[in-house]
Amino acid sequence: MKKLETREDIEFLVNTFYKKVEKSGIGFFFNDIAKVDWSLHLPKMYKFWETLLFGQISYKGNPMAVHFPINQMVPMEKQHFETWLKLWTETVEENFTGETADLAIYKAGNIANLMAYKMETATKLEKLS
To answer: Would the pTM of this model clear 0.70, i.e. be above it?
Structure first.
């Protein structure tokens, strides 16, 4: 297994991961609800992970803000983020080893937990409105 250390590695990881996502129980969020244009989404994800893992400040955006409108259409629940994290972890572990691979899993866990919390809170607040 190789170390996760280049932009090309991130592109491979992200592409492989999203192929799994599309076929999984959360694929409908991307394909049916958000109607993701993969030719635009994947390069953003390359930049996002490059920024998180390598400190290359290539990603500019607010991932949380992008997810709130989707959550309003169909609530994103904790199990959805658990599936996302499971697929990410599997993809990393199947293809990479080392400190940066471990960091990718750790950061994804933090993201999944924060997103699950924020989306659940938004759904609860919307129901109160």
So the answer is: yes
